[in-house]
């Protein structure tokens, strides 16, 4: 199963090499193409291309030939099991009227082995077909086990509780390892939690309930990358290249990234701020999607933070920040702007917005959320342990910064 070969994820599109290998392995075991495609999480068109190859016509009129993948050989099995060649011989001899004893003598096998093979692996038509018999024998040999979550009620309850608190499977897996370092029975791999969510009957996802994952998915889907074109507004403005540190440099606290989560037809929005070093999140309640409303919200929220912890704010080139000079004048925070179509320059905020979409799904009216609702979400997200912080919570690290008035980095 896929639990033993996790298909890694990366920026942009998911690498396909392991998925292709697993797909061809399933075909070699006799799986139908549609079932193998479903198992590795690709559409049937991709599966046909992997198996049969295709041709692609370029814009310049030339044709590129995409060859099919090389078929994979079945993993070597013990000689005590019948091989595919032996099953072909059994089919040939049986079609000539030879009985189990005669076939067994030719193959140097036990007559009971041949008799059981003809009985158990016969086709539904009553005929013995060697390739069909080899396929169902290989499937039977897999002996799938029950999910650990379905056999351990304590683990099941713990995972359900944390999923309700919007924890990711990776966070749950790390927390179990930290809380039970000496008890392997109380550990779960991240992929095991995903499998339990995607697999019907596991108890973690009961349709028609929505998926507990922040992505809202109840099945695997290949990653795609969407690039939005940016837009520039009136000068003057400070470029991110004038900020004085690289987008990957998080050594100095007090540098924030911001953006908007926008509702349908741009009629509602929530402002998001995240501190780059601690990943501490602040949400801005907006009554309207205007530059004046965002200016007032930014001044209100940034004024709650000590000046050493509000050095800079990085935003995209949206027109909602048209009053960025007023924000700087009122708070002392310098506003920098990313390049057009370069969301990676605000990677911390982009990741945070993805987490927040679990609370504020796309295509929903964001105006229905009160400041109290935003404060609850903000608190829950800031108390969640993060892998990049060594499984510490943003609230813990940001609280330390607030208490460290004489910290060298805050001078």
Question: Can you describe what's shown?
Answer:
By secondary structure, the chain is of the alpha/beta class. It has four domains: 65 residues, Arc Repressor Mutant, subunit A; 42 residues; 76 residues, no CATH class; 173 residues, 2-Layer Sandwich (Nucleotidyltransferase, domain 5). 39% of the residues lie in helices and 9% in strands. It has 16 helices and eight strands. It has a six-stranded mixed sheet, with helices on both faces. Helix 2 crosses helix 3, helix 5 crosses helix 6 and helix 10 crosses helix 11. The chain starts with 16 loop residues before the first helix and ends in an 8-residue tail after the last helix.
